[in-house]
Amino acid sequence: MIKKFIRKILGVKDQRDPTEPVVLGPDQHGIDPKLVSPNAIRVTQTLQEAGFKAFVVGGAVRDLLLGVKPKDFDIATDATPEEVKRLFRRAFIIGRRFQIVHVMFGQELLEVTTFRGNGSNNAPKDEHGRVLRDNNFGPQHEDAARRDFTINAMYYDPATQSVLDYHGGTEDIRAKVLRIIGQPEARYREDPVRMLRVVRFAAKLGFTIEPETRAPIPVMAPLINNVPTARVFDEMLKLLMSGQAMACLNELRAAGLHHGLLPLLDVVLEQPISMKFVTLALESTDNRVKAGKGVSPGFLFASLLWHQVLEKWNAYRAAGESPIPALHLAADDVLDAQTENLALQRRIASDMRDIWAMQPRFERRTGKSPFKLLENPRFRAGYDFLELRCQSGELDAELGAWWKAFVEGDNAERERLLNTAREPAAGGAKKRPHRRGPRKTGEGGSGAVANEAGTGGATGTDGK
Length: 464
Ligand code: ATP
Ligand code: MG
Fold this sequence. Notes:
- It catalyses: RNA(n) + ATP = RNA(n)-3'-adenine ribonucleotide + diphosphate.
- The protein is α+β, with helices and mostly antiparallel strands.
- It is built from 23 helices and ten strands.
- It has three domains: 154 residues, Beta Polymerase, domain 2 (2-Layer Sandwich); 95 residues, cca-adding enzyme, domain 2 (Orthogonal Bundle); 147 residues, Orthogonal Bundle (cca-adding enzyme, domain 2).
- A hairpin with a 2-residue loop joins β5 and β6.
- It is elongated.
């Protein structure tokens, strides 16, 4: 007992009893209770009043300890999903591979997860050791051991304002270290997506990856191929929308994770010609995320794949196709290839297509065309995209400046701009093989541009 106490005080990592948490009070952890969502407090309180254990867990505790307002709150409890569901009016059990309960309060969604236990060691696995389902419940210390990183395995009780730390997470937060819990190879084998999560957290938090956590990644990277594409895509999206997209991509490269695994990344990282455009796109995405503005996955992927589209667009035109149909053919080619590999959802693909299809229209600066374009519900995305093309040097800056003035100008200014506009400059490509004269019927004429009614977009992920 005394030994244990001394060890606890000294924080001796290797000998810590993983079934006994270190408990930190408000003075030790310094969490600002104002950063905790009132709905998260409601959920833990309701569960506790019904006689269950309940804590805020995972990323939210990590962010609270870092003094950052968490973007969402996960709750862990010893109540089963059925028991949780009964306690809340708007609660839904979701997921098969990893059952959780979604509890809704207004717009806020809280994920309530029942403690997972070691019984999961016998959980069904694929031939590479990947866990296919994990719905074995168990005690809290086993739940802690099944989480991915030490900094993601802490529990916060809003009622007592205490933090329970089973794996030295608070020390690792202080030292800014990302450390996997347990034996790294085994943990990556169980779930190869953890390799992508290491990279994302390291870049997002500015933490270093502890050497043993990093070492097996380049060797084990190919295991990601066995993960369902929808899940890899979800993780990629989180990575690209983390506010540190460029840092994440660099980290992926450093960890040896980029090659041959994620087809989109091969395109992005290995074609220097698109680097300037992609860098600008990712910087603008990062800035938007940091400013708390929304980011559209469609815009992001439209940017990442633009140079592929551009190359094919030019090829079709060189073969005699006129600009707008050529662009649709190019978009089809690129989207077909990526939809297969990346599980790009139809809704996102359709946004990408809209953004690309708008581009030649920015070059028509006469008559009613610019006004029609302004009314397009997706105008803003198309216009932001045009700006990127100008900034990257692909298009003449004059075109972007003209549109900026047109967007911001009053009617008189717009009329003046229409009179001063230059002739269309060959649709983005510097060379144009031959012109077939002005195409008056082109506007909105192609069925391929039309929005293929979104699917409503469940991402198809089934948990963690
Ligand atoms: P953020 O939401 O900021 O991206 P997070 O840590 O909250 O980060 P989530 O995906 O929301 O990440 O997961 C919540 C928690 O569930 C994690 O903190 C971790 O404890 C656990 N977890 C998530 N994915 C895994 C995984 N693949 N393996 C083990 N534990 C996981
Ligand atoms: Mg989270």
